[in-house]
Please model this.
Amino acid sequence: MPKALVRPVPYSLHESGCKGEDGEITARFDGVFRVDYQKSMTSEAPCVLAVVRASSQSPKAWNAGEEHLADGIKIWAKNLFDEFANDYDSNEGINATLIAMSYVHTSVAPTGKFSQAHTTTDPTRRAYYARAHKFTYNIDRFLEHSTARGTKPIILSIGLDGFACKATLILPWLQRSPSFTLIVRETELVYGMNISYFPQHNSGFYYGFFESRDLLVGLSTQTAVDDGVKNLLAAWKACQDWKDYGQAHNGRLIGRNGDR
Model:
């Protein structure tokens, strides 16, 4: 497999991806790490965006044992997508992109279309707003491009809160976003997640499958359309409450990225 490339790119979502029978990848960085993975030569393959964030510095798992994050993130992403491709069991393979960013807080993400960094003079808060907006922008671009191509997008959240978990921010974002499928991948059942809605797969990971329109209804009316959505919304709330009220430990034995 040819060596993957790492180089700065403009502030936009890289879409082209490398091609390869075994899943060739490229990684690019401009504040957001993007790793492209293609293990299919057919347009019928699902288009997946894996999203993961860290509230502080990037976790050790992203380095995958490498000295430099730019090298390790490619290995970590390839392993992630190889496992997901087996668990998802798509006959057409998958085409996927990883968006990973550190110092993104669920208290301010996802954002609206425009950054709120200008609304505060506090430099730390301004940085949080700016990074949350960049993270959200890259996800928005993926949804827009996938929808424009006539492909229903799939967002793979690495962890219950790998993308977001604050209902008051998720709701307006869903209201302005095209329809997509949300898949939540977890290393363990946390915050009341029920195995009935997050079954364990061959890799050992737990997956929950949801439609954005169902989440929108559940958040808009406070009446979940099914028990699975209700369980996810309750888990999101428990997770955000833990962040807001600062309990000593969240009960995890394994981090959402695989850290122990």
The CA atoms of residues 38 and 95 lie 5 Å apart. The beta strands are 6-8, 24-29, 33-38, 47-53, 95-101, 154-158, 181-186, 206-211. The chain has one domain: 6-245.
